[in-house]
Protein: Protein-export membrane protein SecF
Amino acid sequence: MTTPDNQNPDTADTAVLDDATPSQGTDADFVADTKRSFFSRLYTGTGAFEIVGKRKMWYIVTGVLLLICVASIAIRGFTFGIDFEGGTQMSVPVVSSEITADSVETVVTDALGKEPESVQTAGAGSSATVQVRTETLDLQQAEAVTRALAAEFGPELSAAEVSISDVSSTWGREITEKMVIALIVFLVIVFVYIAVRFDREMSVAALVSLFFDIVATAGVYSLVGWEVTPATVIGLLTILGFSIYDTVVVFDKVAENTRSVLQTTRRTYAEQANLAINQTLMRSINTTVISVLPIIALMVVAVWLLGVGTLKDLGLIQLVGVVVGTYSSVFLAAPLLVTLKERREDVKRHTTRVVNRRAGIETSERDRPVRHRRPARAAVADTDDTEAKVPTGKRRRNR
Structure:
């Protein structure tokens, strides 16, 4: 039995070779080297991280995350923005230290006789404002609130500086309907594309991964309690595109590694898929980091420094979606693909052949008789008896 070039014979424990030696440089030459450092194993991508083999654990983790998210959506629900529920929104600029969310809420409650639905501060510094959302107010109620705010915080705050706008819930419903239609069209296109580009099992695994992305992202949004705005809808559709891109990259490498796996008995389909995940793991991490850094910069600069509160919703859903999309591509879509493939009869038979062949090799090596080398001849002393035993090199003449 031979050993790949990148593996010591004493440490080779996972490679089982065919009778015919494979061509140099193929994926079959890669052997999981678990004795290297973490970053070395991550960079080389030789299959040292067992992801597919521990897919039951990842299924449990995924199920727990889904359970938490679904429970949060069912119990806590969502905080829909004014664009979806309708109402009146007031924006009070923070022109003095006396204007805070609590003080504005007190003034609005006294003027209307009931508490507003939400009061929060947006922005920072000179661009900071207090956003107040209430039920739809008529003209008299709006003027009463404006006069009350000017009387409480004047002369720094005038009535003209308080902006009041009414938003109808019809626009929010139209946005929701269009989002659902766009989501359905997107999922159909993804299913057809992956089925044509790869196969049916990969399409099913990709759709399950996207479903997890949607539920997990929505669940985190429900747990945080931030308002659902049109920017949230836009961000959700954006992160689905990122997730499917990462999934297609992993599936492309899996398809490359398993193209002729059923014609050999070196590795099973699961082992080749796990090798593909390891080979694309560093790329997925790099893509995630590069995508997350601008999102964090957007949230820090635009929200906390410039006070653009509308970008907060877009930044959060993209941040959560990118991380969740990477997790689902590596730890859900690819292992689920292996589970679906192993239900096929040809893959089952191939796995059985590989296992039986390895068992036969181990048995033959264990039962093979041990050959002992003859000890080297010791140095012979120069005596009369020994000299007679030393061959002279002459041919013996037959008599």
Summary: The first strand starts at residue 79 and ends at 80.
